[in-house]
Design brief:
Chain lengths: ~650, ~70
């Protein structure tokens, strides 16, 4: 099949785009990232009447302005793929606001297929729209009533896509004042034979360029930056208009577009208001946190209790296979296969139940609308470290295990905040690191275990806050402004939830599995060759000693830390081996404190690093993550050790 | 005329917006639009309704929206 037609779903956030995407494409989907950013890109194939269409789910956007990364991605896609069939999905209860985007698409010279989605919800509340008249008023664009969730009208949509022919879009006419201004500038542009615009803007309507100039669209202003004459002409026209309306043109155009939406809907829609005000409690500054605490507790016990149950069985299963393989394989191979490969795969698969369950719980919370409430609730706290409210969830999950914690960043929509969270969440001490903390506390500070733990946690969270704050200043891009829509509460769409759960967890199996497998083999080799008593690992440990001695850790400690890279629990078991079983007589309390701190802070385990790579899709950021963790641990270790010595501790 | 932070639950008309944030416009908060405050506490975000959508607004941003 050559010449497959492209179909793109475009619409505002929370309009049920994903559900519709699923009904169109079934299970044949591919999930990746848009080039260069951590924004999810979904593609699927629609088969209808023996024809194939490639369907792309564009990010949810409120308008076509290039002022946010999602909007720029969607707009670039529409500009670069001129023949794409656009399906504009509209949240029927909010149709007047949704038409805003439709009007912009029409202005861009597109003739989208309109889907009045969530028609079930609308009709339940007594909102009706006359789709034939709406189509008439929009110059004959196809308009279909649809409910992705109940599979109403989906076949009509497929049929419309199948027989789609681009139409000449109708002209959206605004007030005389604005129209005169637009016309003046269009004439000015027409004086130029060649505007020397970038490729993607070459065939857009002049009228659209002019409106974008008047609206102050960042990308279009950049495009015209060297055309001083045009810009000053536009500014003069702008000033003329502003003198008459007494406020800025940007908001005037927005007002005009909304007025136009209202005008189009007049007489063809009966309005009604939805009411449900449970949010006064859910977002209450006191009760809201109590409810959130309960939800988190339930989720946490669900995920880690049930997950732990399965993990045990997985571990047992691998144990049996390992014993069996050891008994039948020649010893030369059995080391590599059993202690290297098999135990590596085991360590990944043990995470799998937790990951699947966490994705499942989060998908439910997201689908029913609670997740956006959490974001609103936690925003105040998180904004102090340069992040938004949604980042709170990955942090909380990371306490159990960093891997599902990082995966949970998929539910964050802002790519800058997601990247920062991916980089700092590995600092959150996971259950494996609590094993180290607990062991050291019991061995060295039996009387002060909780104080010791609190001390370590205090330092770690301080560093987490500081790094997150600094990263939020360094990394380019805008943080999310704190204003967002709270979608109505909906009963979960189980089909969609299971799908999300599977999609998000299977990738972990596939990719992290391969990285872990390779890593485990490499570490096995390092620590066992040429011989266990004199391995390359010990050699490296002795080299590392030059640095680690600055923080009071000798080569044996360094070897423990190296093992910890595979899985942090290994630090403890390795310590027992290299220090000959009696740790407390070898290390001083100060050294023990520093050692614990360093093992909590330095490079997260292999599985986490693999996930970091999988989620950022960037070797650069993964390496950065590793390096800054190591440097952080080194610096903090050296500083605290030497401060402790100055204060008279041993 | 007063900003949203000082308003009790009830319906108001937006008069002026003192922030360049485009997101407000995109969510339909423009001069002249009706806005209903659902809840506002001493801390935390302000909840409002515009048309049929519910929106949470941070305190800083809410202070920039003048209504009457």
């Amino acid at each position: 099949m050559d010449n497959i037609k492209l179909v793109a779903l475009v619409g505002q956030p929370n309009v049920g785009k994903t559900t519709l995407f699923n009904s169109l494409t079934g299970m044949r989907q591919e999930i990746g990232n848009w080039p260069g950013v951590t924004v999810e890109k979904k593609e699927g194939i629609l088969n209808y009447k023996n024809r194939e269409f490639k369907v792309i789910d564009l990010p949810g956007i409120y308008s076509l302005m290039s002022n946010s990364i999602d909007q720029k991605i969607a707009r670039d896609f529409i500009l670069e793929n001129k023949d794409v069939i656009l399906v504009d999905i509209i949240d029927t209860p909010n149709i007047n606001r949704n038409l805003y985007l439709t009007l912009q698409l029409i202005e861009l010279g597109k003739s989208p297929i309109l889907c009045l989605n969530l028609i079930d919800e609308a009709e339940k509340y007594g909102i009706t729209v006359d789709e034939e008249k709406l189509s008439e008023k929009l110059g004959g664009l196809p308009v279909i009533k649809i409910s992705g969730r109940y599979n109403v009208g989906v076949d009509n949509l497929k049929e419309e896509i199948y027989k789609y022919k681009p139409k000449k879009p109708c002209k959206i006419v605004y007030s005389k004042l604005l129209e005169d201004a637009i016309e003046k500038i269009v004439k000015k542009l027409e004086e130029y034979k060649n505007l020397e615009l970038s490729e993607k803007f070459k065939s857009v309507p002049k009228r659209w360029l002019v409106i974008s100039l008047l609206e102050g669209d960042p990308e279009i202003l950049e495009e015209f930056k060297d055309k001083k004459e045009i810009l000053s002409f536009v500014n003069n026209v702008k000033k003329e208009v502003e003198n008459k309306i007494k406020h800025d043109v940007e908001s005037y155009i927005v007002e005009q577009r909304y007025a136009k939406s209202d005008e189009i809907l007049k007489g063809i829609m009966t309005e009604s208001q939805l009411h449900e005000d449970i949010d006064t409690i859910i977002l209450h500054p006191f009760y809201g946190f109590v409810i959130f605490g309960i939800v988190l507790y339930l989720m946490y016990s669900f995920v880690f209790d049930i997950g732990g149950f399965f993990s045990n069985y997985i571990d047992m299963f691998f144990g049996y296979i390992g014993t069996y393989l050891t008994s039948i394989l020649p010893p030369i191979y059995s080391g590599f296969v059993v202690d290297g490969a098999l135990s590596g795969v085991d360590s990944v698969l043990q995470f799998f139940p937790q990951i699947a369950l966490i994705m499942f719980s989060l998908a439910i919370l997201e689908d029913c609308g609670y997740l956006s409430r959490v974001a609103a609730l936690m925003n105040g706290v998180m904004s102090k470290i340069g992040l938004g409210g949604k980042a709170f969830i990955p942090f909380i999950i990371s306490f159990g295990c960093n891997v599902p914690g990082l995966m949970a960043t998929r539910f964050m929509s802002n790519h800058k905040e997601r990247l920062i969270t991916l980089l700092v969440a590995p600092l959150v001490p996971c259950s494996a690191r609590f094993v180290i903390i607990g062991f050291m506390a019991a061995a060295f500070f039996p009387k002060y275990t909780s104080l010791f733990t609190l001390g370590i946690l205090g330092v770690v969270f301080g560093l987490l806050g500081i790094s997150s704050y600094i990263l939020s200043k360094i990394i380019k891009g805008k943080g999310e402004e704190f204003i967002f829509e709270l979608p109505p509460y909906r009963t979960p769409d189980w089909k969609n939830i299971l799908k999300i759960t599977w999609e998000r967890s299977k990738e972990f199996l596939k990719k992290a599995g391969t990285v872990i497998l390779a890593g485990s083999l490499a570490f096995y080799w390092l620590l066992n060759y040429p011989s266990t008593d004199n391995s390359y690992g010990i050699v490296i440990g002795k080299v590392l000693e030059h640095i680690t001695l600055w923080m009071g850790i000798d080569w044996r400690g360094a070897v423990c830390l190296m093992f910890g890279v595979v899985a942090k629990e290994l630090v403890v078991s390795t310590m027992n081996i290299v220090y000959g079983g009696d740790v407390s007589s070898v290390l001083t309390p100060l050294k023990a404190f520093v050692f614990t701190l360093v093992s909590v802070l330095y490079i997260p385990c292999l599985a986490t690093v693999a996930t970091q790579y999988l989620e950022t899709h960037s070797l650069k950021w993964t390496l950065f993550g590793i390096l800054y963790n190591i440097s952080l641990a080194t610096i903090v270790g050296i500083v605290i050790y030497n401060m402790g010595k100055l204060l008279g501790f041993q | 005329m007063d900003n949203l932070l000082n308003k009790n639950p009830g319906t108001y008309t937006v008069v002026k917006i003192n922030t360049p944030c485009k997101k407000l416009y995109e969510l339909g908060i423009i001069p002249g639009s009706k806005i209903t405050v659902i809840s506002s506490n001493k801390r935390g975000p302000i909840l409002v309704r515009i048309g049929n959508s519910k929106i949470a607004i941070g305190r800083g941003m809410a202070g920039a929206i003048l209504v009457e």
